[in-house]
Design brief:
The structure is a homodimer. By secondary structure, the first copy, chain A, is an alpha/beta fold. Chain A has 3 domains: 98 residues, Periplasmic binding protein-like II (D-Maltodextrin-Binding Protein, domain 2, 3-Layer(aba) Sandwich); 77 residues, Periplasmic binding protein-like II (D-Maltodextrin-Binding Protein, domain 2, 3-Layer(aba) Sandwich), CATH 3.40.190.10; 82 residues, 2-Layer Sandwich (Alpha-Beta Plaits). Helix content of chain A is 29%, strand content 32%. In chain A, strands 1, 2, 3, 4, 5 and 11 form a 6-stranded mixed beta sheet that branches. In chain A, a hairpin with a 3-residue loop joins strand 3 and strand 4. Chain A is globular, with a radius of gyration of 21 Å. At the A-B interface, strand 4, helix 4, strand 8, helix 8 and strand 13 of A face strand 4, helix 4, strand 8, helix 8 and strand 13 of B.
Chain lengths: 282, 282
């Protein structure tokens, strides 16, 4: 993707996260243009304040499901941002140690609790009984292994192992092998129609009106629009008060899609459009 | 709920978690009958192996949305378990310190990354620049404050503060005040019909058959069954391969519900029923 070659791109950091690894796998970008941010919220604010032209955040994992923090920030906090691309990347967890450390020497394992959970079976089999420590991100876990004395192992990316001069002791230690994450590249530019696009919207329904979801789905079914994702999210006002995040096949310039969105706007409290973008190959 | 007074109940531990706090707020249970488990998976296995009669796990938070780990364990790993009750409890985050420590002395904050994220605005305003450390649970964070030297603060429950002899320095530090979690109490006994019940099922669809969700919803709409939750979950075989978790109003002995489930079983790959239980008051 040459388009992003000279753009500054904010990403969910610190350096060495899966998000950075996914970005580098898909986009030509200069190292000096990479801007690590500590939360998804900071990524979108960096774009909104023009500190960067683009930003990348994880949105859905094949095992964990939607990344709620991202859906919520895009739903409730982002202004005039659009999804310009989607990137799907495999999530491969590595057991990372200081050079020379062997698995029998490892006394504790450190990672983000979600990564630890995804390697539960591996840890039970190969590192049973060792202490499991928590970190704020997998990259942070790797950094701490580099700084600590003793035989601590981190669960993280190959990229992070390289950044901190550490060694991958074991690759692909995740319980489910088909572990993939979908990331979205955000910006302010509408993306031109291609032959295979997706469009994302959020529909805010009126509270306590049963059958809303059925009504929404019927608007799409009537126009033969295929949905690739539908996710209810609480509006943070209380249990049972929802909005719906919807991804569909097609571009917002398609007659069927623009007409469906027009009808949804007439029927429901609000519709937020989050852009059309080329569909990633799985 | 007298029914559970003499039952052994497994819960998502360690001692002092929000899950334990919610259990004690709703159920009379003897302390010696409380069995802390380290994962949701361990809770259901404790019941299946008859180590306890019941177990309690979080299933949905008003801010974060569904607890994916729980939905997945109940969908893919639980055998013959039923939801016997639901319990809704407020989630109030407390800033917890050693007795006498003042906020200006606090040099680092420790909690589960999700709890830290829920107190983002408070931390930015009142503890800007202090180091944020990660723990495997809020209860674990509180335990570590009790063990550590220096002025570390944990984010956790009042119950945990009591258990470890610590002090609540500030209450209700969460960004969103209407932060509630719904917990489910699991067991092996079918629950009798009351005047206000809910029923939970999981529908496994055939892959790549568009319109499945619409078909499912129509079965319920046709019978005037009100759905209180619908959540797609990946089947862990790859992005785009889903099943649907559905909560509805009514008891499985109601003619409309048993008939809807019968029809869904004819049309789709499989339907797993997870029990009927009295609806919690919000």
């Amino acid at each position: 993707m040459k388009k992003f070659e000279n753009k500054r791109i904010a990403f969910l950091g610190p350096r060495g996260t899966f998000t950075e690894e996914a970005l580098l796998s898909a986009v030509l970008v200069k190292e000096e243009n990479l801007v690590p941010c500590s939360t998804v919220y900071d990524v979108i604010k960096a774009i909104e304040k023009n500190e960067t032209e683009n930003g990348i955040v994880p949105i859905e994992n094949s095992i964990e499901g939607s990344v709620n923090a991202t859906l919520d920030v895009l739903t409730f906090e982002a202004n005039d941002l659009l999804i310009e691309r989607e990137i799907i990347a495999p999530i491969r967890h590595r057991l990372i140690v200081k050079p020379g450390v062997k698995i029998k020497d490892v006394t504790s394992v450190i990672s983000h609790p979600q990564a630890t959970a995804q390697c539960r079976k591996y840890l039970a089999k190969n590192l049973s009984g060792v202490e499991v420590l928590a970190a704020n991100s997998t990259a942070d876990a790797v950094r701490r292994v580099a700084e600590k004395n003793g035989c601590v192992a981190a669960i993280g990316t190959t990229l992070a192992a390289k950044l901190y001069g550490l060694e991958v002791l074991e690759a692909d230690i995740e319980d489910f092998q088909d572990n993939k994450t979908r990331f979205v590249l955000l910006g302010k530019e509408a993306t031109k129609k291609t032959d295979r696009d997706k469009t994302s919207i959020v529909v805010f329904i009126y509270e306590d009106r049963p059958g809303s979801l059925l009504q929404i789905l019927q608007e799409f079914a009537y126009r033969y629009i295929n949905l690739t994702k539908i996710q209810s999210r609480p509006t943070k006002k209380g249990l049972g008060d929802y909005c719906f995040w919807i991804d569909m096949e097609g571009h917002i310039e398609d007659e069927a899609i623009s007409s469906a969105i027009k009808c949804l706007k007439c029927k429901f409290r609000a519709v937020k459009t989050l852009g059309s973008y080329p569909m990633a190959r799985k």
